[in-house]
Amino acid sequence: MSTASIRSRLAARDWEEIDRTIGADGFAVLPALLVAAECRAVAHLFDDDRRFRQTIEMARYRFGEGSYRYFRDPLPPLVGALRTEIYRHLAPIAQRLARALGDRTALPASFAAFQARCAAAGQQRPTPLLLRYVAGGYNCLHQDLYGSVVFPLQLTCMLGRPDRDFTGGEFLLVEQRPRMQSRGHAIRLGEGDAIVFACRERPVRGARGFYRARVRHGVSTVRSGVRTTLGIIFHDAR
Predict the structure, then answer these.
(1) Dist. CA 216–CA 121, nearest whole Å
(2) Average pLDDT, the chain
(3) Which end of the chain is more exposed for a tag (fewer CB within 10 A), N or C?
(4) What contacts 148, CB < 8 A, 6 or more positions away?
């Protein structure tokens, strides 16, 4: 996949509707962002040790059951192109979310400029990652924060085929609103589908304006097979 291909693919999306959906729900599903061959190619990278800077066995840290691996630089072309090109579309949406929460810090329009901001804060390690779960695997609710610079949105893309490669393993989002019980979503993604979601908090309109809802994400228990996903986090790590 070329950068031009992913650029044209993203340009064809209805970003106004995606913006509205994220504003209303805190997330939006992008159906068939990747084709099957691209999903397989990225998933196969999981076993290539040369591609990764760090591997985390989740049980060791009580994060869940499964493994995830952070890519090293240079990122695989598809991963790098996706991270760079989708940032351009998400930056205006993320800016509106941040301003609704009272943050007036301007987000750069380009990913290169945002990455330079991360580097200036000492965040220089790439954060895109592959995650793999086998039967019994799951991911506890968490947030992906790696330093003082945080981009308000992130993306997960399903690389496998539900009901063929695995069963179970729904993507989970839970938001905690002040003085209210938590609200949860269980999202079933198809092969190549991506979900864009708030990575730390999101604004929710109330009677007196917007208030902050804390957001965490995870994965429900995989009942059979192998579930592999690609995670795109835009802020780098310290």
Answers:
(1) 24
(2) 96
(3) C
(4) 121, 123
Provide the CB-side half-sphere exposure for 163 (13 A, CA): 3
Query: Of 100, 193, 111, which Cα lies nearest the Cα of 149?
Result: 111
3-class DSSP state for residue 214? strand
CATH code for the domain defined by 3-232: 2.60.120.620
pLDDT tens per residue across span 110-168: 999 999 999 999 999 999 999 999 999 999 999 999 999 999 999 999 999 999 999 99
Q: Which residue has the tokens 């708030």?
A: 198
Residue among 52, 23, 53 at smallest CA distance from 153? 23
Instruction: Classify 72 as helix, strand or coil.
Output: coil
How far is CA 70 from its chain centroid?
Answer: 13
Rounded to whole angstroms, what are the CA distances from 120 to 80, 84, 145, 236, 237?
20, 19, 17, 11, 12
**Which residues, at least 6 apart from 220, have a Cβ–Cβ distance to it below 8 Å?**
138, 168, 169, 170, 172, 186
CA–CA dist 114, 13 (Å, integer): 23
| pLDDT above 70 for 36 | yes
- Write down the domain spans for the chain: 3-232
What Rg value do the Cα atoms of the chain yield, rounded? 17
Count Cα neighbours of 88 within 13 Å in the Cβ-side half-sphere.
12
Amino acid letter at 113? A
